[in-house]
Every structure is written in structure tokens, then in C-alpha cells.
Specification:
7% strand; six-stranded mixed β-sheet; 514 residues; alpha/beta
């Protein structure tokens, strides 16, 4: 029999069970096991294995007919399914009691709003059961009334929180939160006001989900959420192909479904690393973790109305990210002004994402640890070094950059790095109208405001080396900063020459063959 390259749902379930029986097995070893066990023609990729493990609950809910299939039955009305699932998740954050009949009635309402007409499905008990299984929703229960926490909640809850934290090492305590970023925002009050007034139609906003541990030794890859699945700047490539963890919806917001996917991915990473961790989380509408089958991540929810004081991301880590992002942006604006460009703040989404990724990587472990310590949650030392001077140095750089730009009404630095409008949609409740917009298809390319940024024509190896040689010739090696730059430029030269040498060898090889 010819080996197959695809897996049936039954085989995928067996992979999940093999992982459960061998929790320390790595995904690469699991992939090799699957190839041998099921006589596959090739080893499944790490991404395939990761996706299979994340869907274990779905495979366990399938009947015998679905298990023998090599394809999971497609949801007939995916947009309706996503809208309704996000609505259920939002209700859970408000501790609203949902009956099966109420979910079915809401499904009818969304179907009318989506104008499904004659193709509206029958919202039967069987449909409801499959919907709940598909999204991991258990039978709905009454939670009682929702209430707000008063202002002394921090003092009342701090002993409980500290006691919980004592059970974990600093390396195994994580915090996550999201933030908006107007990645083209000008440091000019007049221009920025026009931008924010049109923010509901603004296509220059991205949302970032950040997570890091209390010791500062592990920053997780940021999740980036944009408006379109493949913006024009992506040049028809996916976010994954470009090296990003990227998702999209019409509002560029974090939905309950997106956050649950992110959290399951984190849990899988911790399984692979054989780690048990604690995740500190606020009560944002999208942060719905009930019924999620997490094995290696325990979620601890902060009391309401306390997170700006005791959540490390809110306390300063996100602001540290924005300081560094704005440094990239203003340095680029100065370059464009010197080149007499028409719109010096114009930047396409891909470049903004590259700046953001470099910015997140640039935040030191000491900075992360300092803000965890700053919250007062830890009796133990996170790291000894304070980093206030580093942040002040960056703010001074931003002030200098603003002074170099042609601005009629310059912003204060704090206005630039933490505008209130960026946070307004990060944690607010989402209306039914917006839920429908969030779940609409974003497969098309997005036409960004203005043109994609002009890119310099490709340089030959010789041109690159000549430019580097000119820069090196300019350096004064009696200046310590120039010595550092000299080392970096020499390393870049070496990389370029190495790549060129390999390419020349390949060209000669193929010339001999043909």
C-alpha cells in the first residue's frame, strides 16, 4: 500500500492520546512517532502537530463517521458561528447566565442581521450541542449577579495574591495584556487630533498581545492583530510567512476566540517545555478562560478595577514598549524630512510590525523584572537593578527628536507614548454590531491609506560593501561608541561576504552540472 501523507481524524486523536500518555515527549519526536505508527510518506511538520494537539477536544467529540474522515466537517455558516461564539464569551466575562434557549434565540437574531435568509440553519438541540463542543462550552450555569470591586480591593486582595505567587518561582509567573498602537501617529497635536477624531475609520491601528515572566528571562512572541489578513504591504504573503504571529479582523481587536487560541498555544508551549506556570490576567471582555482544557498554565484573574496598579504590563512594561517604538518612528521621520518626503510620518503596516518586533526584543530582562517588582506583588527580589534612568534616557531622546521635526504644536512625550485613545477599545465591551464586523471575512487585501512606503532598489553585494566601507572610514576609533559601531559594521560585512561566497559556489556547481 502506498504511504499516505494525510492523517484521518482518528489518527489525529491517537496523536493527542499518545501525547497525553507521554507528556514530556517533544513535538518533533511525536511527529516521528506518527510517521512510523501510521506509515506516512513524510514526517508531519511541527505546525501540524501543534494544531492537532490544540484541537484535541474537537476530535474527542466526533462520532465514528467523523473520526474515519480525513477532513473535519466544515462549519456551514462560519461567520455566524464566530459571531455567536464571541458573544457567548463576552457574556461569560460579565457572569451572565446563559440557557441553551437563549443561545439559540441569539443565533436567530444574528442570522437575521447577517441576512442569511433561506439558508438560515435549524437551531436545534443537536446544533446547539455541536456548537458547544466546537468551542469547548459546557452546560451553561447561573453565576449570580455581577458586581464591581470597590477601590480598596487591592488592599483586601493583596495577601491572597501574594500567597498564590509564593507557590511559583519568578521564572514561572507570567503576565499578559494587550494594547492598541496608532503606528503612524504624528507628535503634532493638530495632526494627531484629526487622526484620533477619525479613529473609528482609522486603518493604521494595530493591537499587540504581550506576555513575559516576572524574572524577565522569557518574553513570549507578541501576537499582532491587524485589519486585513494580507495587507498590501505583505506582498501577498501571510503573517506567518513573514515571521509574525498575526491574526486579523475588521476592527483589529482582540476577540474572545483569538485570545483563547493564544492561551491554548501558550499552554502547548509549556507542555513541550515540561513547565507548570501561573498566568496573571485581568478581567477584559476577551479574557474568557472558563472551560478551556489547560494542563500547564494556571490562570489567576486579578480583581476588577485593580489592574492599573498591580498588573506589571499596565504598570510600565507596555509604556516601555511604546517609548522604544516611538523612537524608531521619530528617527525615521527625521530621515524622511531630510529627504524632503511629503508625508514624513507615513509608514506601512509591515514596517511598523518590524519596528514593533525589534522594540519588544530590545526591552531588557531588567526592565521587565523591575516593573513586576514595582507592583508590590513580590516579597522576593526580581532583579536588583533599577532601570528608571534607562527609560528617562529614551524619553530625552524622544524630546530631542520632536525638537528636530517641523511641528507647529508639538506633543509632550507622555502624550505621544500613551494616548488615551489607544486603550479605549482594548478592554471595552463589544456591541452586537461590532461582533458581526469582527467576524466578517478579511481574506481580501487591504488598501492602506496612501501608498506602500517607497523601498530603495535592491543593492548589489558590491554596493552594500562600498556603503559599509564608507561608514567604517568615517569612524573615529578613539570614541568608545564608534568602536562599538565598528564591530557591528565589520560583522555585517562578514555576513554579506559569507552569503555571497556561498551563492557563488552554488552558481559554479550548477554551471558544471549543466
Amino acid at each position: 500500500m502506498k504511504p499516505s501523507s494525510s492523517l484521518s481524524n482518528d489518527q489525529k486523536l491517537k496523536i493527542c492520546h499518545h501525547k497525553a500518555a507521554n507528556p514530556s515527549i517533544k513535538q518533533s519526536a511525536l511527529a516521528n512517532w506518527a510517521m512510523q505508527e501510521f506509515k506516512l510518506s513524510k514526517v508531519p511538520t511541527q505546525g501540524t502537530i501543534s494544531n492537532i494537539l490544540a484541537k484535541r477536544q474537537q476530535y474527542e467529540s466526533m462520532d465514528s463517521t467523523e473520526l474515519t474522515s480525513k477532513r473535519q466537517r466544515a462549519v456551514k455558516h462560519l461567520e455566524l458561528d464566530n459571531v455567536l461564539a464571541n458573544w457567548v464569551l463576552q457574556c461569560q466575562t460579565h457572569r451572565v447566565a446563559l440557557s441553551g434557549d437563549l443561545i439559540k434565540e441569539k443565533a436567530h437574531q444574528f442570522a437575521r442581521q447577517l441576512e442569511l435568509g433561506e439558508i438560515t440553519p435549524e437551531f436545534s438541540n443537536g446544533w446547539l450541542a455541536k456548537f458547544n463542543i466546537r468551542h469547548g462550552f459546557k452546560a451553561q450555569k447561573s453565576y449570580g449577579e455581577s458586581g464591581s470591586v470597590d477601590l480598596d480591593a487591592i488592599d483586601r486582595n493583596m495577601p491572597t495574591i501574594k500567597e498564590k505567587l509564593q507557590s511559583y518561582s519568578l521564572q514561572d509567573i507570567y503576565n499578559t495584556d494587550e494594547t492598541g498602537l496608532f503606528y503612524r501617529m504624528a507628535p503634532d497635536r493638530t495632526i494627531a487630533r484629526r487622526q484620533s477624531e477619525g479613529s473609528k475609520k482609522d486603518k493604521t491601528r494595530l493591537t499587540f498581545v504581550f506576555a513575559a515572566n516576572a524574572y524577565g528571562s522569557h518574553k513570549m512572541e507578541p501576537l499582532i492583530i491587524g485589519h486585513a489578513q494580507r495587507p498590501r504591504a505583505f506582498n501577498r504573503k501571510s503573517g506567518e510567512q513573514l515571521g509574525f504571529y498575526y491574526r486579523s479582523n475588521a476592527k483589529a481587536w482582540t476577540t474572545g476566540l483569538i485570545f483563547r487560541e493564544w492561551l491554548q498555544k501558550m499552554d502547548q508551549q509549556m507542555q513541550d517545555a515540561n513547565r507548570k506556570v501561573l498566568l496573571l490576567l485581568d478581567n477584559a471582555p476577551s479574557h474568557v478562560v472558563r472551560d478551556l482544557p489547560l494542563t500547564n498554565v494556571q490562570v489567576f484573574l486579578f480583581p476588577a478595577n485593580t489592574t492599573s496598579k498591580i498588573q506589571p504590563m499596565d504598570a510600565g512594561i507596555i509604556v516601555a514598549f511604546k517609548r522604544r517604538y516611538r523612537r524608531f518612528q521619530l528617527q525615521d521621520a527625521i530621515d524622511r524630512d531630510e529627504q524632503q518626503k511629503a508625508d514624513i510620518y507615513k509608514v506601512d503596516q509591515l514596517i511598523a510590525m518590524k519596528w514593533a518586533k525589534a522594540t519588544w526584543n530590545d526591552i531588557s530582562s531588567k526592565t521587565i523584572a523591575n516593573w513586576f517588582k514595582h507592583t508590590g506583588l513580590f516579597e522576593r527580589e526580581t532583579q536588583k537593578n533599577e532601570v528608571g534612568s534607562e527609560e528617562q534616557d529614551i524619553e530625552n531622546e524622544l524630546k530631542d527628536a520632536i525638537n528636530q521635526l517641523p511641528i507647529s504644536r508639538p506633543m509632550f512625550v507622555h502624550e505621544l507614548i500613551n494616548p488615551e485613545e489607544e486603550q479605549q477599545v482594548a478592554h471595552e465591551e463589544i456591541s452586537d454590531e461590532d461582533l458581526i464586523k469582527l467576524s466578517s471575512s478579511q481574506d481580501q487585501e487591504e488598501e492602506e491609506d496612501g501608498e506602500v512606503m517607497d523601498e530603495n532598489p535592491p543593492m548589489s553585494t558590491k554596493e552594500k560593501l562600498n556603503v559599509l566601507h564608507s561608514c567604517i572610514s568615517f569612524l573615529d576609533l578613539s570614541n568608545p561608541n564608534h568602536v562599538i559601531a565598528h564591530k557591528v559594521l565589520r560583522n555585517i560585512q562578514f555576513e554579506i561576504r559569507t552569503i555571497e561566497k556561498k551563492q557563488t559556489s552554488l552558481d559554479r556547481y550548477f554551471c558544471k552540472e549543466y
